[in-house]
Amino acid sequence: MVRQGEQPAGALVDALDLTQPTVSRHLRTLREAGLVTVRPDAQRRWYRLRPNGLRELDEWLMPYRELWASRLDDLERHLDEMDDT
Amino acid sequence: MTSATDRLGTILRDQDRLGLRFVRHLRHSPDRVWRALADRDQLSQWFPTDIIGERVEGAELQMPFWPEHVEEYSLQEVAVTHGRLRVWDPPRVLELSWEHELLRYELEADGDHTVLTLTVWLGDAAGYHTCLDHLEALLDGRDLGPLHRADAAALQAEYRAIV
User: Fold this and answer.
1) Which of A59, B91, B96, B102 could form a disulfide with B34 if both were Cys (CB 3.0 to 4.6 A apart)?
2) Mutation site for A-interface testing, chosen from B51, B139, B142 by largest number of A Cβ within 10 Å
3) Three-class DSSP category at B119
4) Which residues 43-62 on chain A approach chain B with CB closer than 8 angstroms?
5) Could you give the 3-state DSSP secondary structure of residue A30?
6) H/E element holding A49?
7) Model pTM above 0.80
C-alpha cells in the first residue's frame, strides 16, 4: 500500500499541527485499533503503520461494537437486578 | 437469546456516516426500560456518563463521565462531554446527540417485554479517515498540510467520548 517510514511522535506533532497530548491520544487509539505499532527507544517512541496497514473499516469498528454491546449487557443486567429487589 | 453476532450489532452506512444498530429483547416493560435509559439515578448502572439537562426536546445536556469511569478509562480528569436532546417521546423514542455521535433508542412493546433498538451514528467517519490519511502521508514522506483546527477539535472530543 505505502512505504512504511518510521516517525517519532514529535515529528507527528509538528506536522499535524496538533498539541502533543492530542497526538498521543490519537496514536493510542490507532495503536489499540492495531493500525500502528510503536517501538520504544531510550528517549522517544517510534510509530509506523503496520504492514498491510489499514484494515477494513468493519474490523476497525469491532472494539467499538464491543464497547456498546457491553453497555447494553450492563443495561440488561441492571434491569434484571432491579426486578429481583 | 442474543447470538454472538447479534450482540455486536450491525454496521450501517449512510453516505459519509457510519452507524451501529443493536437490537435487544428485554424482559421488562417499555416504561421500565425508558426509565433506565433516561433517569440519572439509573444511568450510573450502565451508561458511562451522567446526563444532566431538562428532559425536553432541544435541551442542552452536560454529560460528565461518572467518577468510576474516570478511573477505569484512565482519564486525566473528569471529562465533561456535551449533547442535546433531540427526541423525547416516552416510552417510545429517545434520541440525543452526544458530542459528534447520535444515539437513538426505539422501544417497541412486545407483551410485557420490550424490543429495544439502539442506533449509534458515529460522528464524522470522514474525520477518522482524514487523520489516518494524514498519518499515512506523513509516514510516506508526503505533505498534505496540517489538519484543519476544526477537525482536530472534533476528533479530540470524539476520541474523548469514545474512551
Assistant:
1) B91
2) B139
3) strand
4) 47-49, 53-54, 57-58, 61-62
5) helix
6) strand A45-49
7) no
